[in-house]
């Protein structure tokens, strides 16, 4: 090999070595990723940042944090002619009409699948956000147990919402044995089927460990007409309409949000109800729906309902 060839070879080797050193010696360089976690808000609650997870099963919205908080209030109203109220049994009916009639027919026992007030207000409608919005202040999970009761063979309340991780105390004020059987969709939530002894005011505790996308069905296997709906969520941006169809959702971050409107008969009435919340103001809206919206869906849970023919 000539002297000139040796010199060229040495220069080439030096260039390659310098290039490798400049690129980190050939080792791959991974970019540094910093994940934002939730930070504590005033009063001990969590302020959800973009992409943050405040509780299991519920993430934050990917939008700029809003600059204030307002409330969303209103009524859910049925337009048109409401269906006639149906009854599972009227007061004083016998065992030929309803099981354990001494208790279950001690008072009028309504079919609560659709409850409409005199002015068209629809009870038991869920209005909620699926996820925690950006900038939201989520208060701590209540330490005081919620109460799920049974009276005159009715679940009380018929429609209710709970926080993920909150203890729910199942009790009974009836002098007969009942059963509480939940049907969750989220695998984080264990389906339970627990017998509740007569007049058990101490109760049996239960907890939902994950948020549900829609309310879940609760039944009594002993009295097949008994039904209720539970919605566990990882936040408080939810309301259930009262007997007059009224609702209120407080401390919603300002901005435009998409609410879900859900009722047990049709299920989803609206999946993306857009409401703009202004800071320090109450946004009031009447949600009016045609009677046809409340038609029973084909996949509505099957219930054994005996309609009394007695006055």
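^ Assign residues to that structure.
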């Amino acid at each position: 090999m000539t002297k000139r060839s040796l010199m060229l070879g040495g220069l080439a080797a030096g260039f390659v070595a310098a290039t490798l050193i400049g690129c980190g010696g050939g080792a791959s360089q991974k970019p540094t990723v910093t994940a934002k976690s939730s930070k504590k808000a005033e009063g001990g609650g969590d302020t959800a940042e973009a992409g943050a997870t405040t509780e299991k099963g519920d993430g934050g919205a990917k939008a700029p944090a809003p600059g204030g908080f307002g409330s969303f209030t209103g009524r859910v109203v049925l337009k048109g002619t409401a269906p006639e109220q149906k009854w599972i049994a009227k007061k004083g009916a016998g065992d030929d009409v309803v099981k354990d009639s001494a208790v279950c027919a001690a008072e009028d026992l309504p079919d609560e699948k659709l409850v409409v007030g005199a002015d068209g207000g629809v009870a038991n409608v869920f209005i909620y956000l699926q996820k925690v919005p950006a900038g939201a202040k989520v208060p701590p999970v209540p330490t005081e147990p919620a109460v799920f009761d049974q009276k005159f063979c009715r679940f009380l309340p018929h429609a209710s919402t709970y926080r993920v991780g909150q203890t729910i105390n199942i009790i009974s004020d009836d002098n007969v044995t009942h059963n509480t059987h939940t049907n969750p969709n989220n695998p984080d939530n264990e389906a339970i089927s627990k017998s509740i002894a007569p007049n058990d005011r101490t109760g049996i505790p239960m907890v939902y460990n994950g948020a549900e996308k829609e309310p879940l069905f609760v039944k009594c296997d002993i009295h097949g007409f008994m039904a209720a709906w539970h919605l566990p969520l990882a936040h408080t941006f939810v309301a259930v309409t009262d007997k007059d169809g009224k609702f209120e959702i407080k401390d919603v971050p300002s901005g435009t949000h998409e609410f879900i409107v859900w009722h047990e008969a049709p299920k989803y009435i609206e999946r993306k109800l857009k409401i703009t919340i202004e800071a320090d103001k109450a946004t009031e809206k009447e949600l009016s729906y045609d009677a046809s919206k409340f038609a029973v869906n084909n996949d509505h849970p099957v219930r054994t309902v005996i309609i009394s023919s007695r006055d």
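Residues 69-246+263-275+285-294 form a domain with the Immunoglobulin-like fold (CATH 2.60.40.420).
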